[in-house]
Recover the amino acids of this structure.
């Protein structure tokens, strides 16, 4: 085989390898987006069943407006993720079509080269004169080299034929992929139209509620401020209780972290190793408020600070521990509902907004043990649990710790 033909075959192999790598990367991204999309669809279903009561006949309330706003945000996320999938599939289809064109060019070139190779072989009567070619050798070494040359020539012809066949199969596979992706894209486009219609309906409901409640906007802002103030006071009290426990573990020294026994160190290490896989504190729920500073779902100019996450759940839901530990405190603070703090070495989990508690301070608890029930708020038609995680006194984002 000539140097040009060797280079050509090498380029073909590299081109196919690059196609495979590119397809794998695209497929992985599409799978990730599909996972996110299905998760959002599930969350919207949860919101419909846990927050939105279409059969309820009551006066419009800001609680209803909050619930619809939460659902609108999820719908917008779903449409955005679906659009990303559609764009990725579109790019993949275009790229695949380009690859088919390039492969066809390579195949035609390879066929032409192969045809010339076969013709030259026939023209030189290499096959018929093989014996004479060997017998005319001047010595044994030359005969050996001629034998190796003829064997290599046959191998090269076979490899070239195989590369042509392989490229043709690759074209067929890519064409099948294009057809499947076009079908997926059409499905996603149809689903997006349905979601956009739902989003439009929800926004109309939101607009009607806003128009009906404008006169009470000032009262609602005061209500938000009151809730935020109470939440901050509760956070301060939790911080105080944790600091007291730290002080007690340190025999009243000035250290601001827990001094751990070997058993407590092992427990904390085990808790950390389960980051991202901790069970949810309720069996069924959807996150309606994230960790940290964020705009209020309705009054976007108002910022709310959260040391944990808020999970909407079923009425009178059983609340369970997410890990083995010891009850640090059962807290009843001012106008708030019950809160349970559980210590896991130098980690603390907090379960707020409980109506009943079945554990007491100092009690050892196991993972998934029921410690109480959620408080049902009849005024805003939703039941929530506020869940927090601390490392000593530092609040952590629970979303990063619980299983997805």
């Amino acid at each position: 085989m000539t140097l040009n033909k060797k280079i050509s075959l090498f380029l073909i192999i590299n081109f196919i390898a690059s196609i495979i790598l590119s397809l794998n990367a695209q497929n992985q991204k599409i799978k990730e987006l599909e996972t996110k999309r299905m998760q959002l669809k599930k969350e919207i279903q949860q919101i419909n069943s846990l927050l939105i009561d279409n059969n309820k006949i009551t006066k419009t309330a800001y609680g209803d407006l909050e619930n619809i706003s939460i659902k609108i945000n999820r719908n917008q996320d779903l449409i955005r993720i679906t659009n990303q999938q559609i764009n990725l599939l579109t790019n993949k289809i275009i790229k695949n079509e380009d690859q088919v064109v390039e492969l066809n060019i390579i195949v035609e070139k390879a066929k032409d080269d192969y045809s010339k190779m076969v013709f030259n072989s026939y023209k030189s009567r290499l096959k018929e004169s093989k014996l004479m070619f060997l017998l005319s050798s001047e010595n044994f070494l030359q005969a050996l080299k001629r034998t190796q040359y003829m064997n290599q020539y046959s191998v090269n012809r076979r490899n070239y034929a195989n590369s042509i066949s392989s490229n043709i199969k690759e074209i067929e596979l890519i064409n099948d992929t294009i057809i499947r992706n076009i079908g997926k894209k059409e499905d996603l486009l149809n689903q997006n139209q349905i979601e956009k219609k739902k989003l439009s309906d929800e926004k109309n409901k939101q607009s009607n509620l806003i128009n009906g409640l404008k006169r009470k906007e000032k009262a609602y802002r005061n209500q938000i401020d009151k809730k935020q103030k109470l939440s901050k006071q509760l956070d301060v009290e939790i911080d105080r209780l944790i600091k007291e426990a730290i002080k007690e573990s340190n025999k009243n020294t000035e250290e601001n972290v827990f001094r751990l026994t070997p058993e407590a160190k092992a427990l904390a290490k085990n808790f950390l190793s389960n980051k991202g896989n901790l069970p949810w504190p309720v069996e069924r729920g959807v996150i309606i408020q994230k960790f940290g500073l964020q705009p209020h779902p309705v009054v976007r100019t108002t910022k709310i600070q959260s040391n944990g996450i808020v999970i909407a759940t079923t009425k009178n839901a059983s609340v369970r521990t997410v890990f083995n530990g010891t009850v640090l405190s059962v807290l009843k603070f001012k106008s708030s509902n019950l809160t349970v703090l559980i210590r896991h070495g130098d980690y603390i989990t907090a379960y707020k907004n409980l109506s009943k508690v079945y554990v007491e301070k100092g009690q050892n608890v196991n993972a998934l043990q029921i410690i109480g029930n959620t408080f049902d708020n009849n005024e805003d038609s939703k039941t929530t649990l506020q869940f927090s995680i601390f490392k000593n006194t530092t609040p952590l984002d629970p979303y990063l710790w619980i299983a997805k």
